[in-house]
Amino acid sequence: MRILAIETSCDDTALSVVRCEGGLEGPHFVIEQNVVSSQIEVHRPFGGVVPSLAKREHVKNLPVLTEQIFEESRIKNQESGKEGKIIGDIDAIAVTVGPGLAPALWAGIEFAKDLAKKLDKPLWGANHLLGHIYSVYLPQEIGKVEQREIKFPAVALLVSGGHTILARMDALDKIEKLGETKDDAVGEAFDKVAKMLGLPYPGGPEIQKISEAGDAQAIDFPRPMIGSGDFNFSFSGLKTAVLYYLRKQELKANSYKLKADTAASFQNAAIDILVKKTRGAIEESGAQSLILGGGVAANKLLREELTRMSEEVGVNFYTPSAFVHNTDNAAMIAVAAYIDYLRGVKYAPEAQPNLNL
């Protein structure tokens, strides 16, 4: 089965054509085409994503990226001597329906509806969160196959700008949420602390970068809910602690060392919370595998600490094999739609900004 997928949940416009094969016991995927248009430069002056601007950019980018996909397919067909359909035998079109920014979601959904009608193909909605979890099945390179046989039960840690979730997976079609953030998502906390430090948007990569020059033990920031006895998170208190600390250090606010130490200490505290909560979930659930997904999964220290912890408790650690599959992309939406198809689950093509697992 070949799926053309569209992703517009936030500030990345993405399209992908993915060949999907296998059943729930061992699906595998080949990315045939993958294009992404980032809006970072559009939103950077505002220090965050502006929904109305995101929608405008999606509406502008979608036809351009679709034509790019079609043109690449034409060239490939000509080179291989194939005749017929522009993009070959597409079986279905998938589009993100949530969660995300409502204006951005609707831009993708309305475009997908029109495209499905023109191509006379079924339209499937897809859950963005499941896409991040299932992205571990994506191969590193376009045109390649990577068979990943994940042992269940597994614990999935989803970390992004909008979500921080721990879930237990007894199978691909059996997912139970164990806990989530009660306030800020960890990615949101990274962005807000970066803004406090005068670092550019998006803040996550900037925090990681400047932290390399800092002392992670310099400041003992709190670790909210780390001993709460459940698998929920809270990052608002940590963020506020950073704010109060910087206010007290006002005279040194422009010191590079202060910024580096603050960033490193904040990052250390946030990741400490994530790792300890995840370890508890693994030990309590008897998991054999750990899955990491979401934009914050690109954080080097988080991956290193989860790798170390996984080795200590004896579980297999899986995270997307390519950096670009951590951030929003359409290939993961194709995977989510295909697995939903195998599960017999359908999402209506309507925006669901608050959709959860």
From TrEMBL:
Pfam families found in the cross-reference section: TsaD
GO MF annotations, alphabetized: iron ion binding; tRNA N(6)-L-threonylcarbamoyladenine synthase activity
CC per GO annotation: cytoplasm
Domain Gcp-like residues, every copy: 33-334
Compartments, as annotated in UniProt: Cytoplasm
SUPFAM superfamilies: Actin-like ATPase domain
Superkingdom as given in the UniProt entry: Bacteria
GO biological process entries: tRNA threonylcarbamoyladenosine modification
InterPro entries in the record: ATPase_NBD (IPR043129), Gcp-like_dom (IPR000905), KAE1/TsaD (IPR017861), TsaD (IPR022450)
Binding site for Fe cation: H128, H132, D328
Keywords attached to this entry: Acyltransferase, Cytoplasm, Iron, Metal-binding, Transferase, tRNA processing
EC number(s) per entry: 2.3.1.234
Cofactor: Fe(2+)
Broad class of enzyme this protein falls into: transferase
Catalytic activity: L-threonylcarbamoyladenylate + adenosine(37) in tRNA = N(6)-L-threonylcarbamoyladenosine(37) in tRNA + AMP + H(+)
Gene3D superfamilies noted in UniProt: 3.30.420.40
UniProt remark on cofactor binding: Binds 1 Fe(2+) ion per subunit.
Family: Belongs to the KAE1 / TsaD family.
PANTHER family in the cross-refs: TRNA N6-ADENOSINE THREONYLCARBAMOYLTRANSFERASE, TRNA N6-ADENOSINE THREONYLCARBAMOYLTRANSFERASE, MITOCHONDRIAL
Function: Required for the formation of a threonylcarbamoyl group on adenosine at position 37 (t(6)A37) in tRNAs that read codons beginning with adenine. Is involved in the transfer of the threonylcarbamoyl moiety of threonylcarbamoyl-AMP (TC-AMP) to the N6 group of A37, together with TsaE and TsaB. TsaD likely plays a direct catalytic role in this reaction.
Protein name listed in UniProt: tRNA N6-adenosine threonylcarbamoyltransferase
Naturally occurring in which organism (per UniProt): Candidatus Harrisonbacteria bacterium CG10_big_fil_rev_8_21_14_0_10_44_23
